[in-house]
């Protein structure tokens, strides 16, 4: 049975439930990395402070950044689709959302405008296992001396918590089978483990890496993170046409959901890379 080459530009849905999933992921991520802006990023005293969140989704990270920098001149959520973001009347005065396609040439209005550019979960946007074209566009957004903060997970890793406690092997795990089935949709994804080197190769300075591995992920939150992965599987299944492939996906999602309830959790590396554009 062959998989479709692409479901659409973005492989997951963008409805209300999907927004809830993204917001849950944000707060679980903060249990792994308990800050919004990396502690090495120094923005105090910068005139005309501007911050961008690229691939902003619901805008949840940007809204928390607005709480930390209430006097910033502007905090912009940038995404190819903005209907998951809150409407204008619910936003702080200095927060707005704007259309940006990271695969296209960066419009002049955004070039060199931001002191901090944040990006998270760009896996679904990277083509041919090469994040450099997206990274180069992210760097175009920065002012000289501006910071990039980029968060990702090592999707290629097959590491799990709770297999031994449940007396099963990795191959018997429904969660593992669901992830293995879904990998062809993303294609080869080996670059996240090399994020630090990739960022350094683009000339950023003071590059720092924060990483959580299987041995230091907080286990008490691992079930909730895994449930968010299962929700993503439900999203993807819902976009498949009716037929045997969709039925197979639904069965695998159900098995993965049962694993999550038993405390079986995926434990791939979670990483944040920070670097500063030269002056």
TrEMBL record:
Coiled coil location: none
Alphabetized CDD domains for the sequence: AdoMet_MTases
Domain of life: Eukaryota
Family annotation (InterPro entries): SAM-dependent_MTases_sf
Pfam (any one): Methyltransf_23
Matching Gene3D superfamilies: Vaccinia Virus protein VP39
Matching PANTHER family: METHYLTRANSFERASE (PTHR43591), RHODANESE DOMAIN-CONTAINING PROTEIN (PTHR43591:SF110)
Protein name: S-adenosyl-L-methionine-dependent methyltransferase
Organism: Cladosporium halotolerans
Higher taxonomy: Eukaryota, Fungi, Dikarya, Ascomycota, Pezizomycotina
């Amino acid at each position: 049975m062959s998989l479709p080459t692409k479901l659409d530009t973005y492989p997951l849905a963008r409805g209300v439930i999907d927004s809830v999933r993204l917001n849950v992921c944000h707060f679980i991520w903060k249990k792994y990395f308990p800050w919004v802006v990396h502690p090495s990023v120094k923005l105090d005293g910068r005139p005309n402070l501007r911050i961008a969140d690229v691939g902003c989704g619901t805008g949840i990270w940007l809204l928390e950044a607005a709480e930390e920098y209430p006097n910033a001149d502007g905090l912009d959520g940038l995404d190819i689709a903005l209907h998951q973001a809150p409407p204008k009347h619910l936003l702080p005065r200095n927060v707005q959302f704007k259309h940006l396609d990271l695969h296209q040439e960066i419009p002049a209005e955004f070039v060199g405008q931001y002191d901090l550019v944040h990006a998270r979960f760009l896996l679904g946007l990277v083509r041919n296992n090469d994040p450099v074209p997206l990274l180069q566009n992210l760097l175009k957004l920065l002012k000289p001396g501006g910071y990039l903060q980029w968060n990702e997970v090592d999707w290629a890793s097959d590491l799990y918590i709770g297999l031994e406690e449940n007396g099963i092997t990795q191959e018997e795990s429904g969660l593992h089978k669901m992830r293995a089935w879904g990998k062809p949709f993303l294609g080869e994804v080996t670059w996240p483990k090399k994020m630090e080197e990739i960022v350094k190769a683009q000339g950023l300075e003071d590059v720092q890496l924060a990483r959580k591995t299987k041995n230091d992920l907080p286990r008490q939150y691992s079930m909730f993170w895994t449930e968010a992965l299962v929700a993503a599987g439900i999203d993807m299944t819902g976009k498949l046409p009716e037929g045997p492939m969709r039925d197979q996906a639904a069965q695998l999602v159900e098995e993965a959901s049962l694993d999550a309830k038993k405390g079986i959790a995926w434990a791939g590396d979670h990483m944040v890379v920070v670097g500063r554009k030269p002056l």
